[in-house]
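Readers of this paper often ask what the protein records in our data store actually look like. This encoding replaces a full spatial description with a residue-level series of whole-number codes. For reference, a complete record is included directly beneath this paragraph.
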Amino acid sequence: MLTKEFGLKDALKKYFGFDNFIGLQEIVIESVMDGQNTFVIMPTGGGKSLCYQLPALLNDGTAIVVSPLIALMKNQVDAIRGVSEHYGVAHVLNSSLNKGEVRQVMSDIEEGITKLLYVAPESLAKQDYTEFLKKQTISFVAIDEAHCISEWGHDFRPEYRNLRNIINEIDDVPIIGLTATATEKVQEDILKTLRITDANTFKASFNRPNLFYDVRPKTKDVQKDIIRFVKKYPNQSGIIYCLSRKKVEEVAEVLQVNNIKAVPYHAGLDAKTRAKHQDMFLMEDIDVVVATIAFGMGIDKPDVRFVIHHDIPKSLESYYQETGRAGRDGGEGYCLAYYSYDDIEKLEKFLSGKPVAEQEIGHALLQEVIGYAETSMSRRKYLLHYFGEEFDEINGLGADMDDNTRNPKKKQEAKEAVKLILQTVRDTNQQYKAKNIVNTVIGHANAMLKSHKTDQKECFGKGKEKDSLYWMALIRQLLVAGYLRKEIEQYGVLKSTTRGLNFITSPKSFMMTEDHVYNLEDDGTIITKMSGGIGASDEKLYKMLKNLQKSVAKKHNVPPYAVFQEPSLEDMVIKYPITINELSKVYGVGEGKAKKYGEKFVALISKYVEENDILRPDDLIVKSTGINSSLKLSIIQNTDKKIPLEDIGRSKGLNMEELINEMQRIVYSGTKLNISYAIDELLDEEQQEEIFDYFLESKTDKIQDAFDEFEGEYEEEELRLVRIKFLSEVAN
């Protein structure tokens, strides 16, 4: 035990070899040692675990540590055993133990050897264990990853909700809740559910100034972009997160064939393989782990240099916790996320089968993710505001460490617009969430607004000259600036702050940063207007290629897009292909199309490169795993055999939309595809001819334009299939 002569710092030095505590550790440990209920919010890498490990070693009895993951428990138990001469100083009690091992754990607790007992909440709930622990001296209960308690947390686990009742059964002891991510809503939920509203609360800064945040639009070339990025970090450790097991396997395989040492990690792998892959990462036998969110909690690897989100996560808490695994040694960590509204729609589909209350929470959390991805303000400021922390984006630590602050976007005066929003919130009795405030301002009367007679108020429709995206972006910036807040009890309902109410009577300048605008094309490609205009870097060459595209199209009597699509021209400007073989590697081209139309294009580019003394990039050619080529061959063979499209899709595990996307890729890269037999079952000859003629005369192949032209007469699927036939017959 502690004495005046032997204090906390001496104990820290004795057990862990450190001379000083970091951050809030010392005052948190003092609170625990005083037997107080304690709540700790400390970001990943802030030294949370020491806050209960040191008091457990110093106090009489055994501390129970509730933890959600076996991997996390194992790591911490191994670490504690390393600082004590007793192997039994720390134990795990979970489903992985046999009866003999359980008896040994209980024996060590009874003899007073075990100071830390790590348990999963399910194990703690077992009657046998509860009865045993009742008879022991328990020093306190620490609940790690306490956000799992809250339905508003990013990793809610129902079994965590009952922890307080189980603890009461065992003993009336102090409780310590710890989490690396918690919004104000989640914090309140944790304290109420654990019934420790009297707890000493300690909240460390969530700012990780050594992390660089970058969000990029997700295109079909995302895997190529990832490989190019990873190759900038040779022999460095990184984690790539994907939402599905299938995508994890696919990305890991693509990395492997491109000479990157990578392994997959997800819950579908057996425990032995998961443990092996985790150890390979920790021991640096491989560089990259491609994983679902099952990976990373409690993995104490300090030198992860980058974290990539192939798919945008379902909450900002998840995003923050996962990016927090980079740069724990204090060195720079790069956090790159790919954003596509397509991914958001997939996440919304996952929610659709869940209970209504869970859907509401899920949608609210997704809106925060969309706001973060689309904002053009400081990402660090946006993220920290989400966790209830102010940040000085000019002088704060890490102020220039994100893509938006490095490349500032245009600002515009929005004083009158701010006043209108704040007046609307006030005049609608502060009862609406952001979506209905926007509906009020633009004059869109839905059932809720009509029921409250909001459509009869003076503010209704006052901002209809601007679109809903503008108003939503402004509301997000007003929240961060402190003019509005979200009500904690009715999550998402907007309330004016004193500052906001003062603005209405004394308006002043408010410079609004223009948001990124993402448009989703029908084929899933994201086009970004971040820089206004094309993504191509050499505009002079791009214009020359556009003119050539038109003249070649005229010669072949086809629309320009049937020669090469816009993304293909943009890729040519980046890569400067000067041979037919190089051209066939350009996005959306392929061998057939390169041979048919490419000669004049490579001649023009070759001459341009020579005349302008351009150093061509040694561009990365991503090797294929062979999966796509075998799928392509299978689709071509099956359509040749006139097998129904539904049957082709079913045999390949694709729904109709996914199959049509694959067929589009085939014809856009220059290969013919015979699907007339399938279209004949949907449309008569006259209807086919009408759509065919439209695509022949149109300047664009966008499905939305075709849909608008025919005023909904044809289904989107019918239009897409005829477009495939058109490109196959006319362009290829």
